[in-house]
Every structure is written in structure tokens, then in C-alpha cells.
Amino acid sequence: MPADAMTATVPAFDQVDFEVHSPEDGRLIASIPAATPEDVQRAATGLRDAQREWEAIGPAARARHVLRLRDWVLDQEPHLLDLMQAEAGKVRQDAAFETAAGADVLAYFARRAETFLRARRPRPHNLLTLGKALQVNHRPHPLVGVITPWNFPLFIPLGDIAPALMAGAAVLLKPAEQTPLTALELGRGWQEIGAPDVLRVLAGAGDTGAAVVDAVDYVQFTGSTATGRAIGMRAAERLIPCSLELGGKDPMIVLEDADVPRAVAGALWGGIFNAGQVCTSVERVYVHADIYQPFVTELAARAGKLRQGPDTVAGTMEVGAMSDPRQVAIVRDHVGDAVARGARVLTGAGTADRAGSWIAPTVLVDVDHSMRIMQEETFGPTLPVMRVRDEDEAVALANDSAYGLSATVWTRDRRRGERVARRLEVGAVNVNDVFTNVISPPLPMGGWRDSGLGARYGGAQGLLRFCRAQGVTSPRLATRADQLLWYPYSPGKSRLAAAFVRFAVGRGRRRLARPEANR
Ligand code: NAD
After folding, report:
1. Residue 247 pLDDT > 60, yes or no?
2. Where would I find the H helices in 273-324?
3. What number of helices (H) and strands (E) belong to the chain?
4. Does residue 204 have its Cβ closer than 6 Å to ligand 1?
5. For the ranges 108-112, 152-156, 495-499, which has the lowest average pLDDT?
6. Could you give the angle at the alpha carbon of 177 between the alpha carbons of 172 and 178, nearest 5°?
7. Nearest to residue 325, comparing CAs of 286, 356, 301?
């Protein structure tokens, strides 16, 4: 979405219930009542009550519940895959990515939370505070609202629920209206393992999401830039923090010394995985002129051979349906706009040979930055490829975007790849790889520019962001030095206090010796 088309309006509350349809053929799967603002407030009250005890039991006890949820996800995998396939149109292998990555993130934060949350004890930095013990405590924001999109119905909620719960917060999850079933099942799983009532899932559309923003102490949002802006504005009004993980237009830079077959394979999986509906999908490709022709020839040939269709056994199909018919229309618009402006479609043509929300993997060449497909988030299985003169041109074009989520760089020279990474205006870069940052909770995953505010993951920071930091001072040594600043004032105490500070921070004899030299 271009920046000027973004609106920041929060919709009026008129939703009563909504339907979930299969992306594969459009059939109705479920009809679900939408949570009203009263439902949201009631849930928030219950969660806040339960949160106190949840915080009090400490990270080791919390970890036992969260690891039990990890077990539940693995035990229930076939059922969860069925649900994800039904509501999101995924092939089974893409759905299985979610259970694996979700279990991993649950284990990551459960096992490390105790260390991450440990109070820090920084050393006093000057003579006046030398006798003090300094401490930084981490106390959770009591209620975290997690609002998620439809492209990863399990992994994205778990990626934020895991650190928020381990921080000691309670969580109110509002999944996307297109794909609420997996998330509702996750909420049921939390009850089934006998965990405290600190995780609830409420279904609904944008108006339910807006009610969540109004009820919580911290908003963790993943979704489009337009909605992120609206939520950021509301959070500012309420003076609550928010973390916004938004859209992207991720560039792939293929330099002249790249391993071409690997780069082609990376472009394919990076651009087509999950039918291209990944925030960090490869959305545009810049290939050095020296290797452009072999790269494009191999890419088109391999894209044309990808197996697309519904499946029941993981590994039998490669490309699923698009999860939302509205997204199909956007992809077709982008391809149509590109072709009208002179692009050539080498394979795919942005359509597929069946009813439902299907788009065939599509490779385009002769594209340029006047086209929507190179500027706006397409979020579909498209790979527009552009020839570039050299590294500088590739970097300039990669940075010519409103977005700044992530990027990939392909070169046999690892150091060169890391050097190019530092020139890119994005929150993450994978060298000779795709998506690895997304499954690396030790790294921050956050967008720059219109791609977001804040970041998820990032080791300890991924958990501490759900906390408020509390500084505590207490006496360590029996000293009256701190009273130098207290009443009663006297010229002697005044000189002594100034001397203490000047001794610690001053420079030059004049400043050290004559506290009032500059009067
Ligand atoms: P969306 O913004 O339309 O909806 C996301 C969620 O916000 C849904 O649950 C929706 O019901 C809710 N919502 C809508 N209006 C709201 C409001 N006014 N207040 C509160 N909640 C509201 O996004 P989408 O179409 O579901 O998801 C696709 C987008 O998500 C893409 O732009 C994609 O790039 C982005 N995304 C980003 C990341 C990331 O980590 N950066 C990950 C996945 C997807």
C-alpha cells in the first residue's frame, strides 16, 4: 500500500458475526460470533485478575505450563495442520512449518526466561552514588493484546504469546477474521493442559481488534501498514506502548559472484513459500547483468515446474492457495499493471487453472520502479526480476522503497554480503539465504520505515519488551555522602558536592580546582 493511500480510521462497531471460507474452493467452513466490546472488556477483567498470580509464581513455574503447551502443539500437530490447511489454503508442508517454528519459539522463551528476567545490578557511576546498590527489575505489562494476520494462523500468535506469557503478562489474542479457527483451538489447548486462565482468544474482525486495543496495556500487532498506523495512533492516545510488525517489499540482490543455482532456489522458496504470503517474502529481485540471463532462464523453468494444488500428505504439493480472495485481486492488479507498462510474464501470468483463490507462481521480467509490483506489497507468488549494472545500483534500487522489513544478498564472498547488508535500510538481512532471521529468536525481527515500529524476538529484548523496567536504589554502605545534597544547605557542603562531581566528570585543572570558576 503506498504511503499516501494509508488511512488511519478505526471502524465503527457493527459486527455481529462472520464466516470462515475455504480458500481452496470458497466453501463455508464455519460461522463464528464476533466478540463484542463487552466480551472484550469481560475477558480483560478476568485476565487481569489471573495475571497477578501468574506473575507471582515466577518464570520457572510459568515455563512448565508453556512447555506443556509446546508438547500439546506437537501432539496435536495433525489436527492443527488440518485446521490451517482448511482456513488458510496452505499445502501441508507449509502448515507444518508453523507447528515446528511455533514449538521452537515456545521452548526458546520458556527455557531462557529466568535468565532474561533476572534483575540487573549496574554499578554506581559516580562518587555521590557510590554507597548505593542499584537494581533494575522487570515487571510485566499486565495485559498484552496480540492482534494477528491471516498468513500464519499459528506461528505468528505463538511468536508473541510465548515471550509475553513468559514475561508474566496475561494475553488476549485476536486472530484474523479469515483464519480464527487455529487460534481458537490454541486457546482451547491452553485450557486443556490445565494452565491458569491467562490466555484467551477472541474472534472477530477489525472492530473486535479495536476493542482489544482499548482494553489492554500493551499492543502487539502484526498486519498491514494501514491498520498498524491506526493502532499506533490509538495506542498513543491511550498512552500505552505498542509494537507494530507490518508489511514489506523485500528486495533480493544477486551479485555477479553469486552461486546461481542456489540463488535461483532461494528466490523460488523465498518468493513462493506459503503462496508468497510472508511478510518477508522475496518481493523483487535485482540481478547483476553478468549472470542475469542464466538466472532468469533457470528461475522461469523451475517456477513452471512447481506443483500446485490441495494435498493431504506433506511434501506432495509445493504451492497452496491464497488465503484471502481480496489478496488474489491485488496480485492480479499488480501483474496487470506491470504487463500494461511493458513487463513480460515468463511463467504463471498471475492466474491459475482452477476455481478458488489460486495464483500460479509468476515470474516477470522487464520490470522497473514505475510499476506497482516493484513499489507496493504484492503478498503473492510473484517474482519480478530486474537487471542491474552493479552493486551500487542494486543497493540504490533496494533502498528505493517506503518499506524496510528485510532483504537478502547473494554472493560467494561472505564478507561482501555482510558489507552490502550494512548498506541496506531494512531491519534484517539474510546472506545467501531466506527466512532464517524469522526462525532465529536470538535476533530482532522488526521493520524499519513503513514496515513497523519496535521488533519481536531479539533474545532477552524479545521478552523484556513486554516488561516495564523499574529502577531501585538502596543503601549498600553506611554513609552520609548522599545527604550532601539535602537540607540544610551550607557553603561547605556545596563546595564538597561540587568537588565530588567535578572530580568524577571534570577535565582540566581550572575546572577541577575552582568549582565556581565560570560564574
Ligand atoms: P490487516 O492489517 O488487514 O489485519 C491484521 C489484523 O488486524 C486482523 O486481525 C484484523 O482483524 C485486525 N484489525 C483490522 N483493523 C483493526 C483495527 N482498526 N484495530 C485493531 N485491529 C484491527 O492485515 P492482514 O491483511 O490480515 O495481514 C497481511 C499483512 O500483514 C501484510 O501486510 C503482511 O506483510 C503483514 N505481516 C507482517 C508481518 C511482520 O512480522 N512484519 C508478519 C506477517 C504479516
Report:
1. yes
2. 289-304
3. 17, 21
4. no
5. 495-499
6. 135
7. 356
Q: Which domains does the chain have, with CATH numbers?
A: 37-246+460-469 (3.40.605.10), 250-441 (3.40.309.10), 482-518 (no CATH)
Residue 512 has pLDDT above 80, yes or no: no
CB 447 less than 6 A from any atom of ligand 1: yes
**Ligand 1 centre from 173 Cα, in Å?**
13
Written as nine digits, the cell of 104 is 521452537
pTM score, whole prediction: 0.95
At residue 138, what is the residue type? H
Distance (Å, whole) CA 239 – CA 221: 16
Q: Which helix (H) or strand (E) holds 125?
A: none
Name residue, grid cell 552514588. 129
- Please state the rounded mean pLDDT for residues 271-291: 98
How far does the centroid of ligand 1 lie from the alpha carbon of residue 91, in Å?
Answer: 22
Nearest alpha carbon to residue 394 among 291, 303, 497? 291
Ligand 1 center–CA 439 separation, angstroms: 20
Q: Is 377 in the pocket of ligand 1 (CB under 6 A)?
A: yes
Give the pLDDT confidence score for residue 353 in this predicted structure.
Answer: 59
Unique residue bearing C-alpha cell 491464497:
322
Chain centre to alpha carbon of residue 438: 8
Q: Distance between CA atoms of 76 and 247, rounded to whole angstroms?
A: 30
How many whole angstroms separate alpha carbon 75 and alpha carbon 64? 16
For ligand 1, say whether the CB of 176 is within 6 Å of any of its atoms: yes
The closest alpha carbon to 179, from 150, 203, 208, belongs to: 150
pLDDT confidence bin for 502, thresholds 50/70/90: confident
Q: Which residues are catalytic?
A: 245, 279
The reply to whether ligand 1 has any atom less than 6 angstroms from the CB of 455 is: no
* pLDDT exceeds 90 at position 507: no
225 CA closest ligand 1 atom index: 32
Provide CB contacts within 8 A for 2, sequence distance 6+. 375, 376, 402
Beta partners for residue 448, in sequence order: 404
pLDDT at 126: 83
Query: Is the pLDDT at 518 greater than 70, yes or no?
Result: no
58-75 and 92-117 helices, crossing angle to 10°: 170
